[in-house]
């Protein structure tokens, strides 16, 4: 595990108010952690005692920031833990990240133009303002050797520093280290702009765990200051490079063994296909490892379980690392979910930060990670509708509010939109769902009700019939279908619930009104609350889209362009593979 130690550096003197605020926040969130603050003398002493071969290079750098860049890598390599810039403001405790071998964060995703200007081959730029790892991880000698290789670069601009010891160099080495990347968990930018608005775009965070406030004082060009070029002292770097290579080789095998293989528990039979969120996730990731019906015959392996936690307890062994990929729809988990997760699983993955918050608040103690679920990109087809066709797809459990949508459409048929049609597709009907409730709906000429597991072509054709897709769910754990309809350029109306927030923030879909919360009814059980959605508010949202259909259709086409670059299935598979390989 990564030791619960936070390393910080400061040249000396009185701390500025921003730094004091950030440190107070970090200590409040990590009361049981050890904090170490190094001034220049203490930093040099660490190198003298533990890595003296690096001192000629360290002392030879022409700028203090280059020495600070080198030291932060050295101290995490030697002792493990997390390094934080003094201006990193913590949002979430780092405890759950301690189960990884090494954690880096994406500073920002560069445009093609920015990549060209910086000479980068990869758009994902890696931050060096915060990172963590187990002691002696071989990635750090690789990075230190790269610093030595670029040591003789004269410093005439800020970019020279970024590319010789800073995030530019870290970015290059991360993307070049194919084998070591398997052991690194990379936190994606959470889709949040730079908190100081000085970098433009979505940037400058450590996942959802912390934000960078840019309180550092090393930069000079933006202050329009002149600075003479700095030339590194002439030193022999060969000895340092040789020692670092020894460190690298000594640790490679040890950490490679820790990565291990991935097995996938057979949560669903091969012929089931996908008909809801969990079956979709399972079928999307089952090819990442060998599928096992039971895991008691293996040990010291990583087991991925896509499903409801308590259903698979008998197939799991405590001799393995059991990783659960699941979700929940209300704001509080049932007690038996919490007990199952805490007792039988070592890690838990959920598809949205708001859901992770529900799991934490409910009492889940195992480390939680957020990973988007992707969505199916059906084939756009020529529009088939001749009337105003509303679409709904999914298993019609109570929280999805299909009955309220039906009543809203009936009201609109009588009063405002006589030609309205409701197209409902249900892949499967769960045994515990009261099917009789929908008999009247199926018999209504206004409704086009279809059932069965459609293939890709059939599903694409179903969507082509729609004028508008409406998803009035009170609570969702995945919410695939609004993403699918947006991708096809269909005007989409959704409920304002947490998993829909990014869709609503895009400005390309429409929200029905939410009237507070109501008790979350899962059959006869009640667990927490979810959104209260009324039929009149569904009707109002549909009316607005109908009245402004040309404008809504134009916005939907722009939305299709936007969402085509979001939540890619390949990212899910790659991120999941890297997550598993980087766990201890």
In terms of topology, how is this protein built?
Blueprint lengths: L4 E5 L7 H13 L4 E5 L1 H11 L4 H6 L3 H16 L1 E4 L3 E3 L11 E8 L2 H7 L5 E3 L3 E4 L5 H11 L8 H7 L2 H10 L1 H4 L2 E4 L17 E2 L3 E3 L25 H22 L2 E4 L11 H9 L4 E3 L9 E5 L14 E5 L9 H10 L2 E4 L2 H10 L5 E3 L18 E5 L8 H14 L5 E6 L12 H5 L3 E5 L4 H9 L3 E4 L9 H7 L4 E3 L6 H6 L3 E2 L5 E6 L2 E7 L3 H13 L1 H15 L5 H14 L2
Parallel strand pairs: 1-2, 1-3, 5-8, 11-12, 11-13, 13-14, 14-15, 15-16, 17-18, 17-20, 18-19, 20-21, 21-22
Antiparallel strand pairs: 3-7, 4-10, 5-6, 5-7, 9-10, 23-24
Helix pairs in contact: 2-4, 4-6, 6-8, 6-10, 7-8, 14-19
Overview in brief:
It is built from 21 helices and 24 strands. 38% of the residues lie in helices and 18% in strands. The strands form 5 sheets. Strands 1, 2, 3, 5, 6, 7 and 8 form a 7-stranded mixed sheet that branches.
What this model shows, in words?
By secondary structure, the chain is an alpha/beta fold. It folds into three domains: 5-216 and 237-257, Spore Coat Polysaccharide Biosynthesis Protein SpsA, Chain A (Alpha-Beta Complex), CATH 3.90.550; 260-374 and 571-582, 3-Layer(aba) Sandwich (Rossmann fold); 389-567, Rossmann fold, CATH 3.40.50. It is 38% helix and 18% strand. The chain contains 21 helices and 24 strands. The strands form five sheets. Strands 1, 2, 3, 5, 6, 7 and 8 form a seven-stranded mixed beta sheet that branches. A six-stranded parallel beta sheet has the order 12-11-13-14-15-16. Helix 12 (335-344) links the parallel strand 14 (321-325) and strand 15. Helix 6 (139-149) crosses helix 8 and helix 6 runs antiparallel to helix 10 (238-259). The radius of gyration is 27 Å and the shape is elongated. The model has no long low-confidence stretch (mean pLDDT 91). Keywords: Transferase. This is Glycosyltransferase. GO terms for molecular function: mannosyltransferase activity.
